[in-house]
Amino acid sequence: MDYDVIYIGSGNASWQGGRFLRKAGLKILIIEQGLYGGACANRGCNSKAIVDSPYEVKALADNFEGVGKAGNLEVDWPSLMKHKHNVIEGMSSFLDRKFDEYDLDVAHGRGMIVDEHTVRVGDETFTTDKIVIATGLKPVIPDIPGKEYLHDSTDFLDIAELPEHTIIIGAGFVGMEFASILAEAGRSADVVIRGNMALKYFHQPYVQKIIEILKEKNIRFHFNETVTEVLSSVEIENPEERIHNVSKGVNTDEELRDPEAKVNNKAYKDAFTVKCESGLSLKGDYVIAGMGREANVEGIGLENVGITSTRSGIKVNGYLQTDVPNIYAVGDVADTGIAKLVTVAIHQSKYLAKAILGEADEITYPAVPAVAYTIPRIATVGVPAYVAEKSDEYEVHQIKYGKSYAPVLKNDKTAEAKVIVDKDLQIVGAEIYSAEAENVANMFAFIINKKITLEELDYMIYTFPSSSSVCLYKLHNIHYDL
């Protein structure tokens, strides 16, 4: 065999575990068609964090309206885009150097599984003991008339100027997070939702708080609406080429490095009409498809080895094995029933390395925190409130720590959490609504996974002022039944 393990895909789901296998003496090959590091590094998490940050700062500054704020903070989108590209453009080359440092071989091109032990990249063929599929997800583009006018999250994070009015189809992570950015930027948007709720995996009372904030800032919501058609009133060059690349999950290095190489990635005044099954008709400058993501498995040869997949991914067992025992699927492309987050992908990648080395039984998962980076943020970890509220096994305690400690929380008066405890008063879950929800969620993840008791938490001394300390302090009300 040429290799012990071949990974198809170069994101966190592959190299995080691959480096440990190489350190243990196994020979590793990583195959990548696009930029090294995959979606999160080059066109997902990192890009979104850079673009979101100044709007987060603006929202925090607005908390001091009338109590110290003078003037308005304006975010300059073109310079922000320039900064984003300066940071992101170096990510792939940085990871290329890291792969070299870890002594991981790399083949550039589309990896095609030929048989259980063979992978082809272009004209080259490699043999291996084990194959790991780590190809991630791609945006869902609805098959409707006018789909060529739709943009995905990568497009929006590359756009030269923010549209005055955007139509967003979907209210998951992409739809709601982008709506927050547009709202803070003073732009308007229509959000079209097929069902009756946004961010369905999060605590709905907190989601509703976000919706009310967005409504006040010219974001309109349309629930129970199905988009049937997108019309354009302007002639756009090569729209079919753009949508073909998006739907196939294809991004050339040149497209990702150069925003000007993106076809049809700009706004046109009232150029698009989105029509819905109910008769609702909306006009806007830019249309985003935020309808989720699906397994990116087209053209990698699953049919050659009898592996099937669904939109949710490739089904795997507790060892992350597919129906073919020496072929594995990890990260977002694996259908495990666990949240598809980069943190979960890293956990699976490290686990698989141990399993291949014979150092692990079936995979287990700790409580996984998830955050919607809206403004403000909402987060969830452990047993969700909607489950606890329907069960006699749990109690739900509301902690409005922002109301009590606004002066030390950057004047954030609305911060709160719902803490779920079991019959022994052991914390098993939390829902958080706060400008710093991501950090508070990490704190609760640690408490839940390490089973730290309320008595132990009450004994500890924390830094003050801080969002975590004031939230933790309020937990003593549960401990002492106050």
Description:
The chain is an alpha/beta fold and 482 residues long. The protein has 3 domains: 3-139 and 295-356, FAD/NAD(P)-binding domain (3-Layer(bba) Sandwich); 147-291, FAD/NAD(P)-binding domain, CATH 3.50.50.60; 376-479, Enolase-like, domain 1 (2-Layer Sandwich). The chain has 16 helices and 23 strands. It has helices spanning 12-23, 38-43, 45-62, 77-101, 153-156, 173-184, 204-216, 239-247, 253-257, 342-356, 385-388, 401-405, 437-450, 454-459, 467-474, 476-479; strands at 3-8, 28-32, 105-108, 111-115, 118-121, 124-133, 137-139, 165-169, 188-192, 219-222, 227-232, 272-276, 281-284, 286-289, 293-295, 314-315, 327-329, 334-335, 370-372, 377-382, 394-399, 416-422, 427-434. The strands form 6 sheets. Strands 1, 2, 3, 4, 5, 6 and 17 form a 7-stranded mixed beta sheet that branches. Helix 7 links the parallel strand 9 (188-192) and strand 10 (219-222). Helix 1 runs parallel beside helix 10 and helix 3 (45-62) crosses helix 4 (77-101). The protein is globular and about 70 Å long. The termini are far apart.
